[in-house]
Amino acid sequence: MKDYIEERAVEIAKYIIETRATVRQTAKKFGISKSTVHKDVTERLSRLNPALASQARVVLDVNKQERHIRGGMATKEKYLHMEHR
Description:
By secondary structure, this protein is mostly helical. It is about 85% helix and about 0% strand.
């Protein structure tokens, strides 16, 4: 694996852990796709640093469990803004 990919995987995991960021937020921050974020954390990082991968996975699992709530809140905001026009 290329060195820059390994470094990116570690940086992504640290960012996720520190900021509790979602995959979408992380992808936007690093300028990569959501698929790449997921692959870096679940596959590449597991081989490089299993402990760090595990910590990042915990955050991603929590975010995944909460995503339906965030989606509902976003929809609510959308319709509230539409009413005020």
